[in-house]
Amino acid sequence: MSQASVVVPFERAPSAEEEAWLGRLTQAPGVAEVLAVTPAAPGPNLRAPNLKILQVPGGRGVKLRAAIPETRAPQVILQAPHTGYDPRDYASVLAPLRSGQAEAVYGNRFGPSRAVGSFRGSVAGRSLRVLSNAVTNLDLSDPASGVRAFDGQALRGLSLTSPDAGIDAELTFKIAAQFYRVYEVPLRYSNPPRRDSPAALLAEARTLLRYAAVNDGDNLHEGYNTLLRMDGAPHYNAWLGRKLRAHLGQRVLEVGAGIGTITRQIEPGRELVVALEVDPFYVAKLQNVFKDRPHVKPLLSGVESADWDALRPYRLDSVVLSNVLEHIEDDAAAVQNFRRVLQPGGRLVVLVPALPALFGSIDQAVGHFRRYTKASLRAVLEGQGFTVEHLEWLNLVGIPGWFMNGRVFKRRAVPPLQLALYDRVSPLLASVEDRFEIPVGMSLMAVARV
């Protein structure tokens, strides 16, 4: 059986009761080590072969950020310093990690307890639960639980910054932002654990509201906000996926897969989808999303640095780019490379933003070099030896919104409410555009053959 590290951050030096409880933690089955993090030196009775004391002043976040890199076991349990929690729960909390079903497991205090009935928490705690699920798009009954287990590599790979109790909300947000699989299991306990303090609840709420505003999964990626919002437009994405799927074969290279929004639309029924992505942050997400689908192979590489000859053995019959070509400065060289990896008769399917007059602040924020016309897109494809078989405008109705947001209001992302409203009407718009050829649109789709 694999072993776990247990991290327990104390606000003060442990009491005699807490010292005895720590001793029980060290003896729990499957526990390799217990790291007790305290602001002051512990008493002389706090000794055990697999107990490590870290003396770290500061808030909960400071203590956890110091302790997590010190863990060595394949799984890590973050344990609140409340003696009401029972180490016998560790087996069930760790089980989904050890079976490969999850990367994060939250204990649930709100289920029936064998000893004291149900623990309901405060009104503020319940309100925090609603806020947490709204921001993270999870459905946890107890996101503030005092027993949470993580895949050690996943946990140690997170970029954490909160100095106080807000680190609990930050952890939940960033686990969700990385698309890690999250499970929840019921807890049992001999005494009801202490309710969360108002200060801790306030710190978590403040952290959640901050991430709700920026949607920054690792404090570095401005473009993640836009990608995440677009991922939350299911009707629009399903329409794009249907348009692209119709022209793809069985062995597909997707260039610029991002967080997998279009990958999810095109992968069903394919023999192979190679998802090429330049950013390690997004490649990690793709690996998590498609962990159970071996025919999807995320690959870390940029278009300019890709080993195109190494892709030839995949025998690709299709290359697809959805809103990617405009991010490549030398688009002609990129198209030439796509031609190199395609089998004879293979297809290049390209979706790009259209109409140079719409180029504005949102284009700049997400790294666009250009918007295309029919003539300019046809020229870059045919200039590299492709024959354009199909070229059509898409998304007529989106033109006013993009112009107002990017050219008039100088916004750097599409407001989520606007996107949600657009997604509601997109099925109707799609049905109209599927039946009638529109004279212009904010996007162009081209299908070209080698």
**Quaternary structure state of the chains depicted:** single chain
Integer average pLDDT = 87
Described by strand count, sense and barrel closure, the largest sheet is: 7 strands, mixed
Fourth-tier CATH superfamily name of the largest domain: Vaccinia Virus protein VP39
Q: Using the CA coordinates, give the radius of gyration.
A: 26 Å
Question: Mind telling me the CATH class of the largest domain?
Answer: Alpha Beta
Distance between the termini: 53 Å
- In terms of DSSP E residues, the strand content is 15-25%
Number of helices: 17
Shape: elongated
According to DSSP, the number of beta strands is: 16
Strand order of the biggest β-sheet: 3-2-1-4-8-5-9
Reported by name, the CATH topology of the largest domain is Rossmann fold
Under the CATH scheme, the architecture of the largest domain is 3-Layer(aba) Sandwich
Unreliably modeled segments: 113-120
Structural class: alpha/beta
